[in-house]
Each structure stands twice: as C-alpha cells, then as structure tokens.
Amino acid sequence: MMKNTKKDTFRKTDDKLLNDYRKKIEELSRVNEALKMEIVNLKQIEERLKRAEKIGKIGNWEFDVAANSISWSDQVYELFGRDPKLGPPTVEEEASYYTAEVLNRLRNYAQNVLETGKPVREYEFPIILNNGENRFFRGSMFPTTDKKGNVIKLYGTFQDITVVKSAKEESRLREESLSFAQRLAHIGIYERNFANNEVKWSDEFYNILGYKQGETIPSREAFLERVHPDERSIMEKSILKLNSDFKPFSLEHRIVMQDGTVKYCHSVGTVNLNDENKPVTLLGFIQDISEMKKIETETLNLRSEMARMDRVITVGNMASAIAHEINQPLTSIVSNSQAALRLLNKNTPDLDEVREALADITDAGKRSGGIIRSVRTMVKKDEFQKEPYNINSVIREVVELVQSETIIQNTSLTLKLDQQFPVLIGDSIQIHQVVLNLVKNALDAVQEQPKNKRHITIATSVIPKEGVKVTVADTGPGVKQKNIKNIFSAFYSTKPKGMGLGLSVCQSIIENHGGRMWVESTPEGGAKFSFLLPIKKDND
Amino acid sequence: MNTEKKGTIFLVDDDPLVRKAVGRLLKSAGYDTEIFSSAHEFLESEHHTDEPACLVLDLKMPGLTGFDLQEELSAARYSMPIVFITGHGDVPSSVKAMKKGAVDFLPKPFEEKDLFNAISAALMKDTEQKSALIEQEKIQQNLNLLTQREHEIMNLVITGMLNKEIAYHLNISEKTVKIHRGRVMNKMGVSSVAELTRIAEKAGVKPIDIKKNQNNQ
C-alpha cells in the first residue's frame, strides 16, 4: 500500500511536475515566439534604421570611455569615406578629420557630457575627408551611465548636411546681395499676390517711402499717399490699368516724404502671368533717382552757366567793340542835337534841316537801343518774350527801316514772302534784330559789286514738320569756305570795322528760339543766310 | 560870325549816321564841309584848297583806315592837318596818331566845343603850314635865280666861313667872293647872313661839310 501510496504520491508529484514543466515549455515557447517576433521586429527596425540612415545620411557612433575606443555604424563609414574593412578609427585617427578648432569644440562637448551627464542634442561642424573634400555635419552626443550614474559610454549621431548647408548659405548670400543691391541702387520692390491679395514691400521700398516696417502695413493706398499730388492720379490710373489689363507701366514721378522732402523716383509695374495667362503676382519696382536727377540738373545748370560765362567773358572782352558800336549812334545824337540848337539860334532858322536832324536823332536812338538789346541777349540768360508774331510783318518792318539805305546804295531788295503763314511764338524784337542784321550784312556785301549787280532777296517759306525758314540772299562776294566755320563765332569778323558780334548774337537769338541758323553760297556765288524757327504745336 | 568863312573841313567817316550828323554840325557852325564815306573816296577827290582846311577823319573804316590815309598824306610835301574821331578811344591808337602828327584824337561821342577847338587848332596849323609853303616856294624861286658859283658861295657862307676862307677854299680872290656874296644876298632878298641862313634852312639847303669836301678833293 505504501508503495502504492508512494507511487501514487510520486505519480501525483510527477504529474504536477509534468504539468508545471508543460506550462513552462508552453510559456517558453510563447516567449520564444515573442522573442522571434521581437527579433524580426528588431531586424526590421534595424533595416529601417539603416535605410533611414542611408536616406537621411545619418550614422551613429559610440565611444567607450574606459576602453577609449570608437565604434561606428556602416553609414558613418560612408559619411567619413572610410573603408569599413579598416575598422573604426582610433581617437587620434578620428581627430585627423577635424581642424584644430573643430576638434577642440567637439572635445569640449564630450568633456561636458562626461562631467554633467547631460547630452548635447545638436551641433554642427565641418569635417575634412581624406580626399580633401569638405563636408558639413550635424551631430548629437548622449551619455550611457552605469548604475552608479557614472558615464561609461558616449553615443550619438552624425548627419551630413552639406547640401542643406550650402543651399541655405547660397540663399542667404543671394538674399543679402539682393538686398544690398536694392539698397545700393535705391530700388524697392512691391509684390502683391493675386491669390490672397497679400502685399509685401522690400526693406528698400520702406526706406524710399520713408515708412517704418511694422508701423505701416504695405498697401497700394500707403504707396499712393506718398506720390506727389500732381502725379498721384496718373500713378493710380497706371496701377489700375496694370491690375485690369496687366499692362506694364513705367513712370517718372515725385514722392513727398512726411517732412515735405521731395524725392524723384522711377516706378515700374508688371504682372507675372502663369501658363494660362492668369495673373500670379504683381511686381512693382521703385527707384530713387533723386541723386541722378540732382546730378543731371547740376550738369545742365553748369553747362548753361558755362555757356553764360562764356558769353559774359566774350562780352567783357568786347566791351570796347560794343562801346564803339554804341558810340556811333551816340555821336550822331550829340552832333545832331548840337547842330539843331545852332540852327535854331540863327536869325532865320532852317527848320527843315532841324527836322531832319531830329529824325536822325530818332534813328540813332533806335539803333543804340538795338545794340543794347543785342548785348543784353548775350549777357542775360535765355530770357525772352514769348508772344505770337507774324514773321512777314517783322520782315516788312526791317525793309522799311533799310529802304533809304538801299536807295542810296543802289541796291534792289526783293521780297518773296510765303503768305500762308503760321503764327510764331517768340520775341519779335529779337527776330527783328536778326533780320536787320542779316539785311545790313547783305547790304555791306553787295557794295563790292557794280551798281547793277546789287541785289538782296528776302524769302520766307514753311517747311512742313520743321518750321518756318527765312533766307536773306545777296549777290555779294559770298562767304569764303575758310570763314564759314567761324562766321558765327563771337568777335569774329571779316569786316575791317566789324566787331564780330552781329552773327553770333543772331545765332544765339535763333537758338534761344529753338531754331538754327546757317550759311550757304548761292549759285551765283553770293551768300545766303538762313534760319529755321520751329512752329509751336498746341500741345507743346 | 556864323556867316564868316572859317575854312574847309573834309569829313571822312563810313557810318552814314555819323557823317550826316557831324557834317550838319560843322555846316551849322559855318564851316565849308566836304563829306566822304571812305578814305579812298577822299583821295580820289579834288581836295586841294588855298583856304585853311583840315581833315576830320574816322579811324576805323573798311578799306583804307584812318591811319592808312594819314600815312598816305604825310608822304606828300603838303599834308592836311588831321583831327581823328574814333569809337575806339584807346591809348595806343591815340599815341600812334599823335606821334604821326595828328592835331587831336577825339573819342566818340564828342562835345562840339572839343571838336571846334581841335578844328581851330588844325586850321591854324594849316594856315601856318600853307604860309610856310608859300614862303618856301618863294625862296625856291629865288634860289633858282642863283648861278652855279653863287650857289656854291651861298652854301659856304651859311656855314659861317669868312670871305677870306671862302676865297682860299675856292682858290679865287676875296674880291670875287665879295661880289658873288652881294649878288646872292640881293637875289635872295636878305640883308644879313643870319637871315640868309634861316631862309636856306627853310628851303632845305644844307651847309656843306667842308672837311668832307676837302677829303673828296
């Protein structure tokens, strides 16, 4: 029985054991399954990690503090361009990838992690590959501690960010140089997105308009507010047209700053269209051309001042010549008036003679006036009356004035005046001077000819689109080729008594009127002086 | 006074306004006036007159200038006194004109009294000049009456030589010298050696340089 019992007991125990064992095996096999699964998972994760490392160019590394040894993942080898067969580098070998400065920085990080146990999550540093290539890495550094909290290992990642870095660097440089260029060229950019109507201004755009970033919200209205009132409506119209028809515009305009300062600007507006001809962005460029304008104006002023000085100097040089010219009529006035007094004091005054003397005094007075006017024209800046006048009337006046002289000098004077005549705008007295001067020159010229060969022709004609041409032709000896170049220069004269003022004054008068003057030879060898005066259009 | 003949003024100026005015003034003051528009025209004209005359001349003219005319006129034995009028009253021109014998140099415009003063001076100069010329002509006529010998003796007398010296020099007798000398004085209408010397000088007869003469012999 006992035996049985024992046997039973054993059996019972055995069964229990067996049961337990079975359970254990089942559990183990479950664990094993789980482990298998885990391993598969891990493998998958590792694969994924490797792939990720490869794609992201990320590798991980480990450093055993006690052993002073480095271990690298496959990707790190690739990143460093190191043959995996060589195995991980020694600490010294790794140092050779860095410059002294970088090595120092990395060692400081490591020292820091070792001492504090805190990781360095992100840092960037350049490395130099063995083939001399430069790379830029992003790294991280974490500690592994033992139970006592001592750091026994360091691990972390390396990521190659060379491409990102250079792209970033490039765009930073590009932005910098663009903004520099904008500042330098005083060009501001206005950008409006058609999709959301968002308006952006570049820094220089703010600068030019004198707005502060953050204070003023970029808008068309804010821009227009600064545009000079005189040009605001055309600017507004141009912008509207740009928005509706996408028609680009280019305007020179002024802007008025808060403090009233006026700037000269050149604004250009365009619209970028997509492939379907739909507007994407509106681009506006504004350039501050005040400086350019200033220089331009200064140059112009300088040039006109120089021309004026030139004339002043010439006039200064010609003081005696002018005095001579004036002294002639003055002599006539003084002598005539003294003669008239003598005549009147006689017992039987010859009143006709007195009358003639007085008439001569009037003539001489007029002549002095003419000379003074001419001189004033030379000295004064280009100021003259701008009134409508009829050129034919002016010519007739001149002819009347020289009539007696032409008769005395046996010279015939022919008029060929175009009767369909547009009204000219200018100073008729000055034009009168010019015609008189030319006719007098012609009179002088023909004196060298026999009496039957002394002819002067004055003609006017309209030249379509150009203006009105006036010519004074004579049958004199003509202008010698060598004199043609200088004939209009001040103080140049071929006449023994000429002060060389007449033609130069004439030319400056005509030029002040926007015309030009020239000399040619007639087929008969005489001289033909012409000037062309532009006809003013209504919209000029 | 106005109707009194004062002299003839030849006015040359190329500017018609000036010609007319100055001409009118001169006429109103009683001068005979002849007007020309150029130096050339004046030269071609018959402008000789026994009356006192002068030239009122513009300096700057086309063709012949006032200076050119002055030059031209001074080459002749008789030269009409000139009053220059000019719009260029510059110093160098006036100095040049005066050096060449102009009576005056008037810058335009001038006062009538200045013109008339200058003209009076010029006419006076002309009167003197003309009488001097007449005298000179008379002397010349007398000189023409002298014989070869008498000429010879006169030339020696005016050097201050004594009869004795002249006789020795010409290898003739002193008596002969005396006779010739008397005839010379007579023909020339003078009564003293001093007078003879003055007249000879006016006629342009120069005393003979005896030494030079001797050497030549």
- The succession of helices and strands of chain B, N to C, reads EHEHEHEHEHHHHHH
Largest interface (CB < 8 Å): A-B, 33 and 30 residues
Shape of chain A: rod-shaped
- Structural class designation of chain A: alpha+beta
Quick rundown:
The complex is a heterodimer of chains A (540) and B (217). Chain A is built from 15 helices and 17 strands.
Any overview of this molecule?
The complex is a heterodimer of chains A (540) and B (217). With 540 residues, chain A is α+β, with helices and mostly antiparallel strands. In chain A, 51% of the residues lie in helices and 23% in strands. Chain A contains 15 helices and 17 strands. Chain A has helices at 2-56, 74-80, 91-95, 100-116, 162-184, 203-209, 220-226, 229-245, 290-317, 319-345, 351-379, 391-408, 428-446, 481-484, 502-512; strands spanning 58-64, 69-72, 120-128, 134-145, 151-160, 187-193, 199-201, 249-256, 262-273, 279-288, 387-389, 412-416, 424-426, 455-463, 467-474, 516-521, 527-533. Chain A has a five-stranded antiparallel β-sheet with strand order 2-1-5-4-3, with helices on both faces. Chain A has a five-stranded antiparallel β-sheet with strand order 7-6-10-9-8, with helices on both faces. In chain A, a hairpin with a 5-residue loop joins strand 4 and strand 5. The longest helix of chain A has 55 residues, at 2-56. By secondary structure, chain B is of the alpha/beta class. Helices cover 56% and strands 12% of the residues of chain B. Chain B has helices at residues 16-28, 39-44, 66-74, 91-99, 112-145, 148-157, 163-170, 174-188, 193-202, 210-216, and strands at 8-12, 32-36, 53-58, 82-86, 104-107. Chain B has a five-stranded parallel β-sheet with strand order 2-1-3-4-5, with helices on both faces. In chain B, strand 3 (53-58), helix 3 and strand 4 (82-86) form a beta-alpha-beta unit. In chain B, helix 6 (148-157) crosses helix 8 and helix 7 crosses helix 8. Chain A binds chain B through residues 320, 323-325, 327-336, 338-340, 342-343, 346, 353, 356-357, 360, 363-364, 367, 405, 408, 444, 495-497, and chain B through 2, 14-18, 20-22, 24-25, 27-29, 60-63, 65, 85-88, 90, 107-112.
